[in-house]
Amino acid sequence: MREYRENAPAKINLALHVTGRREDGYHLLDTLVTFADRGDVITVRDADQDALTLSGPFSHLLEAETLQNNLVLKARDDLRETLKIRGITTRPVAIHLEKNLPIASGIGGGSADAAATLRALLKLWNADLPAPNLQAMALRLGADVPMCLRSIPLRATGIGDAVLPLPTLPRFGMILGNPLKTVSTPSIFKALTRRDYPPIGPLPSTSNQNDWLKALGDMRNDLEPVARQLCPEIAALAQLISDTGAELTRMSGSGATCFGLYQTLEKAEKAVDTLQAIKPEWYFQAVHSVSEV
């Protein structure tokens, strides 16, 4: 029985500038994204009938009725239909989702799961799609899915569909922290009082950590002030992370996850020990960010 396993790494918005809004309501963004070396895990295997099973510390939050709209199943169905149109038959598949990331937490968990599902099923079904077709399918699933398909450091503009790799972005030790409070992304965008912030400025041409920390310090997450108003725990979380000596602390995406950057993974791991002792009921994880090389 064939089986394939794909990591679905956490997506971290190091900076997120809201630069406009289209007539159809979609917001225009300019965002720098990196990925963690940990996250959810997707496993697919041949089966007699389609199935989705769950495990992991946050699997209990995916209710049965919610699963019907799960991006993993949408990715499976969209890929199957696309391949059918191209004359490629697909067998039933059993998909297992190991849910290690908090739900609706601003680190792309659902989008990463969908992207990993696409990668795994293309292997299982021994199929291939031209890159433009695969990217278009990913975008239909969600604005973050094209980024998560690549899972490399990148800059995304537009609604997230224009992606440019960042080969010089260095690797950092990182903390991911979440107070286990969900924040409504539509509510945050609706509450914005301004949608024409300046885009991200010039980026370092080297992989020097200090150069990037300085540049990142001049950037921002335009959703963070609103998110802090809707979820006061975000401000408390960011302060706790900052107090551990993080080089940079910021909210990722629409929250409520915040991250801290450290020069090494070892420093991040020590900071997690400190934070878990202070807030044992919150989620904390030390990770390495990925690099393209």
UniProtKB/TrEMBL annotation:
ATP binds at P102, I103, A104, S105, G106, I107, G108, G109, G110, S111, A112. It is an enzyme of class 2 (transferase). Residues 70-149 form the GHMP kinase N-terminal domain. It catalyses: 4-CDP-2-C-methyl-D-erythritol + ATP = 4-CDP-2-C-methyl-D-erythritol 2-phosphate + ADP + H(+). GO terms for molecular function: 4-(cytidine 5'-diphospho)-2-C-methyl-D-erythritol kinase activity; ATP binding. InterPro entries: GHMP_kinase_C_dom, GHMP_kinase_C_sf, GHMP_kinase_N_dom, IspE, Ribosomal_Su5_D2-typ_SF, Ribsml_uS5_D2-typ_fold_subgr. This is 4-diphosphocytidyl-2-C-methyl-D-erythritol kinase.
